[in-house]
From TrEMBL:
Main localisation: membrane
Protein name stated in the entry: Sodium-dependent transporter
Transmembrane helix listed as a keyword: yes
UniProt cross-references to InterPro entries, sorted A to Z: Na/ntran_symport, SNS_sf, YocR/YhdH-like
Lipid bilayer topology: Multi-pass membrane protein
Compartments reported by the entry: Membrane
Highest classification ranks of the organism: Bacteria, Bacillati, Bacillota, Bacilli, Bacillales
Length: 444
């Protein structure tokens, strides 16, 4: 099917794909995984993986989408007719499904925190944030209610369609998030003992790395950039054929890495200064940041603003996750709305056990992990690397080199960039994924 939607402006595409990429990965997940995986060495590895593996893959997905102008499954069918390569698309859709099921749980926590912030339960100076967090995540009605609300907004916006739904708001919300992070960092860095947190976050100590944390860093870089699931194929299919993809991908990777570093610089100094544990896990941000806001003038107001922007960043990622499923399912735009709601309901049902796994189902374990952790592990450390591996092989072995060249560099003279990209995709990326993966299965 030829896509009949198109981005109304280039900035719309950049902001929406950046919106997909920037979300929980940079703001919530990276800090907590860094905390549990040893700090600076993990961050260094994660940045390297993002630049040398995630970035080329992002470009590869953009090439597929813009060239074919088709959704995540049709694109592969078009490029490799009568083969099974389109299963990459189905793998992506399935991955997005599972991903959104637990993503929405955290979205639900943010919704709850907005409520606590409005009612003065956070940010006013006298709360025990660990207790509050435990209550928020373990109470089944609150956890599931928050998740449902988050998914309702997601289905509503995706049902309305790309232009109307996603493009408009990104234009001012993302810059606002950047600014607020800078304010937060300034406050966090001027707390007593802040430098201890900075050095935990940025000084590499390689003795803290092990095979599993290397896999986490790899999975985190895919998660962060939304690659490996063909979401970026679908988004770039709405581009015009001669729109530039190199510059947008640089902005997307750059903005996301900045936000990642910003989040760490906002959180870790405060962790050390205020006596929290860097290994606190999924609650890290929710426990630490309210305490930082408390130390600010107009803290309660800024906290609310932060939560709203954080929710927005999370929603724009969720839109892309549901979008890919809807784009595949609705052959024309007539049933997009219905499809969005149906899929939203399925995602919700799948996500409820994850939501409950912080409370009444916390004892249920799958391979020694809680349901939430197992779902996250499956996506981040198995499905995303697998999708990324297949995409790198597909693009570099299945598509012709000169076609790729003309697609990627479009008349510019940056030949060496193309060669480097091609080399990474063809040799380095598949090899690194295999090595990291096998290394972990070895130790398990
Ligand atoms: N990149 C998003 C984040 O970091 O929060 C998560 C994500 C969205 C991953 C969309 C994959 C995806 F297709």
């Amino acid at each position: 099917m030829e896509q009949n939607q198109q981005w109304s402006s280039k900035i719309g595409f950049i902001l929406a794909s950046a919106g997909s990429a920037i979300g929980l990965g940079a703001i919530w997940k990276l800090p907590y995984v860094t905390g549990t995986s040893g700090g600076g060495a993990f961050i260094l590895l994660f940045v390297l993986f993002s630049l040398l593996i995630g970035f080329p893959l992002l470009l590869a997905e953009f090439v597929i989408g813009r060239k074919t102008q088709k959704d995540a499954i049709a694109a592969y069918k078009h490029l490799a007719p009568n083969t099974k390569w389109y299963y990459i698309g189905y793998l992506g859709v399935f991955t997005c499904f599972v991903l959104l099921s637990f993503y929405s749980v955290i979205g639900g926590w943010i919704v709850q925190y907005i409520f606590y912030s409005v009612t003065g339960q956070v940010g006013t100076g006298n709360a025990d944030y660990e207790a509050l967090f435990n209550h928020a995540v373990s109470n089944p009605a609150l956890a599931i209610g928050g998740q449902a609300l988050f998914l309702i907004v997601t289905a509503f916006v995706v049902g309305k369609g790309i232009q109307a739904g996603i493009e408009k708001a990104s234009k001012f919300m993302m810059p606002a998030l950047f600014v607020l992070f800078i304010v937060l960092i300034v406050r966090s860095l001027t707390l007593d003992n802040a430098m201890e947190g900075v050095s935990f976050f940025l000084m590499p100590d390689f003795s803290k790395l092990n095979s599993e944390s290397i896999l986490f860093a790899l999975g985190q870089s895919f998660f962060l950039l939304s690659v490996g699931v063909s979401v970026m194929v679908t988004y770039s299919s709405y581009l015009k054929r001669d729109d530039n993809i190199i510059q947008p991908s640089i902005s997307i990777v750059g903005m996301n890495l900045f936000i990642s570093i910003f989040a760490g610089l906002a959180i870790f100094p405060a962790v050390f200064s205020l006596g929290f544990e860097p290994t606190a896990g999924p609650g890290l941000l929710f426990i630490v940041l309210p305490s930082v806001f408390e130390q600010m003038v107009f803290g309660q107001f800024f906290l609310l603003m932060f939560l709203v922007l954080f929710l927005f960043a999370t929603l724009t990622s969720a839109f892309s996750l549901l979008e890919i499923v809807v784009a595949v399912g609705s052959k024309n735009n007539n049933n997009r709305n219905r499809q969005a709601w149906i899929m939203g309901i399925f995602v919700f049902i799948l996500g409820v056990p994850s939501a409950l796994s912080f409370g009444i189902w916390s004892d249920v374990s799958i391979f020694g992990k809680s349901i939430f952790d197992a779902a996250d592990y499956l996506v981040s450390n198995i499905l995303l690397p697998l999708g990324a591996f297949l995409i790198s092989i597909f693009v570099s072995y299945k598509l012709k080199k000169d076609i790729l060249k003309s697609e990627l560099i479009r008349g510019t003279k940056v030949n060496f960039l193309f060669e480097a990209w091609y080399f990474l995709l063809r040799y380095i990326i598949p090899l690194v994924i295999i090595i990291v993966f096998l290394d972990v299965t070895d130790i398990i």
